[in-house]
Amino acid sequence: MTEASGIPLFSLSNKSSQYRLIQLTPEVQDILKSEDERRHLKIKSAGPNSPVYLCSFSKTFQIKEVNQSNTLLLLSSEGAGDIRKSGEYGELRILTAQKLSGGYLECLPVQSTCDLSFVPLYHGSEVGIPMENNVDIEGFQTNIPLSTNEYEKAWVDWLCVQLGRQVFRLSSSVVRQVLLNIVTAIQIEGLNFRSLELKRVYEAVHQDQEEPTSVLETVLRKFSVHDSEPYCLDEDRICQWFGQKALIEHASKEIKLASFMEIWHSSLPVSLDFRCELSQLVGQFVQITPDTIQHLSRERLPKDPRTRFEILFKTKSMWLEEEIIPFIDDIEGNRAKINNLFLKFAKRKVVKGVVYISRRST
Amino acid sequence: MPSATIEVASHSQESDACSKNIFPEILDTALGLALVELQGTLHMPIQDSLHIGKIHIEGKNAYLFLGNHQRLEGKVEDLKTPLGILTRKSEAETKITQEKGASGGTAIEIVEIITKKIVFNKRPEHLVLGS
Questions:
Q1: How far, in Å, are B37, B62, B63, B65, B66 from residue B122 at the CA level?
Q2: Whether the predicted model's global pTM rises above the 0.80 cut
Q3: Which of A22, A211, B41, B83 would bridge with A105, disulfide CB 3.0–4.6 Å?
């Protein structure tokens, strides 16, 4: 082997074309192999200093840059034609070398959730469509950093609705009123609670209220077992939603448990037989004493475990183990790792077979 | 909130690809793109089309001659995780993509997936003219 037998290399600056390297983990490779997943493949970001996400049909990855100190060159025949034309190298094989800036991009799978509280509220047809801070549907669909599946779920979870070209969230009062109207109409018209067609529901409800079909559809999807027709309304979901609203509106401070249960039960549509149990609201309240509860939402707690435990112990100094786990199992789902959190940030004590978790003494 | 669609290039123009690919089979590259990793910093010229050296690949061994006086010895290695080579499509190509029904802004393409790299991690040897 001598220098004479090598292929000549020429420089190619980044001005000509820009390449970046992206690491293709097995998960990303599976997405590239699936036509359904590939068709929805997008890179999304809120702006130059915001995280960047790779979204497919069903998965979301956060893209991070991994820098390295080694030099990376991409060799190719790009630009070789122009060099040969200059005459010196004639028909010889030649290559160009382009120095790649940065390292490579890695794709980290994330269970992506999105805070859609920036979407304005719709308070019903009597108030009308808000004119300020509107969110355009096309931009919303294109740019929310969620996979297509996650987007559909968020749309329903956040009670989003499209009115004209704009996106809104349904206010609690609209949801309550529409749901009550739907339940009443089902009973009057003899519709099947477990098998509802949107058109039929709209015809039944339209006599009593002026909300558009899209509003009814959002409410049906929210409280149905199925995401599409025929909708199968689920009493437990309805009961749970009303319970969460009752907690937010009436239990921001400590409240007697009996009073709360009464408020909860009376807020539900009377025509149906609901089963109100505190187990439906796990992760949304804390039992301060055996007779009192207070609203505490896991979703609003900080992600940092140290800060989270501080807030939990400030709310209640001593917890039963099974009581505190719903407030930390989103940080670590694995039981062994939860125990590690207890070891690190709390004190675990067993009294007569019952496990208590309290603040770690400093 | 900006977004960009991503496409995977199909190697439909295989005859073109073959004519551009002058690397040996060991590098397993359809479009003739090869990744070289050098331990250290390489000061590349700013201008295009300046001669910087030569590369020679013989089986799994590779040799990089830089300028007239340095030779580096390296090897062809498997990448632990394959890498996609991303590039931005031109405005005209992006427009074609959008006409085909894709929404969103810029179109980005994965032009090739590479599974090997040529690594030079030894100190360069100094060559004397005539050696």
A1: 11, 12, 11, 13, 14
A2: no
A3: A22
User: Which chain A residue's Cα is nearest to B113?
Assistant: A24
Q: Dump pLDDT digits (tens) for A276-285.
A: 899 999 999 9
d(CA A90, CA A93): 9
Among candidate residues A349, A286, A354, A359, the one with its CA nearest the CA of residue A323: A286
A238-270: string of b/e by CB count within 10 Å (b at 16+)?
bbbbbbbbbbeeebeeebebeebbebbeebbbe
Which of A18, A71, A143 is the closest to B1 by Cβ?
A143
In this structure, what are the phi and psi dihedrals at residue B4, rounded to the nearest 5 degrees?
-140, 135
Taking the C-alpha atoms of residue A98 and residue B87, their distance in angstroms, rounded to an integer, is 13
ipTM of the predicted assembly exceeds 0.90: no
| Chain B residue numbers touching A142 (CB-CB < 8 A) | 3, 103-104
The two three-digit tokens of residue A87, written as one number: 């005459």
Q: What is the DSSP letter of A226?
A: S
Are β-strands B34-38 and B107-120 bridged in parallel, bridged antiparallel, or unpaired? parallel
How far, in Å, CA of A294 to CA of A332, rounded? 24
pLDDT for B101-123, tens place per residue?
A: 655 567 889 989 999 999 998 88
Q: Which two tokens stand for residue A338?
A: 């939860």
Q: CA of B68, closest CA in chain A: separation in Å?
A: 9
3 state SS of A160: strand
Residues listed for chain A: 362
From chain B, the residues in CB contact with A141 under 8 A are 103
**Contact by Cβ (8 Å): A83, B48:** no
Q: Using the beta-carbon criterion (under 8 Å), do A19 and B87 form an inter-chain contact?
A: yes
